[in-house]
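Hey, sorry to bother you again with one of my protein questions. A protein chain has come my way and I'm curious about its shape. I'm sending you its amino acid sequence along with the backbone structure tokens. I owe you a coffee for this, so here goes:
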Amino acid sequence: MSVWDTLVGQRPAIRALDEAARGQGMSHAFLFTGPPGSGRSNAAVAFAAALQCEQAGCGTCHACRTVLAGSHADVSVIRTEKLSIGVDEVRELVRRSALAPVGRRWQVLIVEDADRLTEQACNALLKSIEEPSERTLWMLCAPTVEDVLPTIRSRCRLVTLATPSAADVADFLVATQGVPETLAAHAARASQGHIGRARALAVDEATRNRRRAIVSLPMRLTSLGACLGAATNMHDVAKEEAEAITSELDVKEKADLDASFGVVERGRRPREYSPALAALERGQKTRAKRRVLDVVDRGLMDLVSVYRDLILLATTGQAAAGLVNADMADDLERLAQVTTPESNLARIDAIFAAREQMLEFNVPPQLALESMMVALQLPQRP
């Protein structure tokens, strides 16, 4: 048992981080990059545990266990459920970075989704990374180096994580979740290397059913009406799933706010209550919007896997074992007969265009999905 056991298929990165934890190639700032689901934040937390451990990551000592549980006094993690990380959150981290660690080792500050830092937040962070305190260590996580400002990434040591293989993910699921090998293999393929997604697919039948509904859409896009209906359905399902995730948390946050201002006990609202409630509601609205986008984005990647499989079938004739969606091989064979690799590449481009419209240009998801579905429409048979 060690702190590195949660990292799947990342042997080169583990070797580099283990050497750094033992004093070889240490830096004051690290940038963890890798595709979604590769375990960027897990790697950062595991590295933080190794740095606090007397044995460089044994996984069983008090320091390792508290870091992995998120309760270590000298390890701070900033994560956001909003669309961006603002300057106020970063300033609080910068203030904390100037303090000496409570223990004898490092003060570690981990920023998940560093690509979501606003321009002001980046500027607030830059000076602290340029001139860190003696025992302060920064760890930033982002999909690619291009997602972080050059002035920041040039001051960080880069740690690149790879997409784990389907075999590695399947072995991990069998070992940690106890699922049958067949189900683990299916979840590993369908997740396309995303560990969290693979775990959800392996243990939750509802998640598998939602994915099955998404990947079956391309077969039904035979008319304009069908395309518009598919867009509406995909958007509605995303909203329902996002609301199921956030509604309980929203209620708890409102109850906590009421209790902190004494609204429940005293039956009246202090003057400061209304601004605090308005700020809470704004934050909840932003979080709900991000949740919807996250669910839609996951669906878009599932759609991409279908067209990737069609291109694979048409260009190589590879058997079902090489497909992401091997369980729907018969449907894919039929689709491959009425489409071409070129048209399916164009469909993948349309999916990524819709993704960019929603995530980068704030286009309403319903409109972006309608435009995309029309572009995915199957050719009319003569």
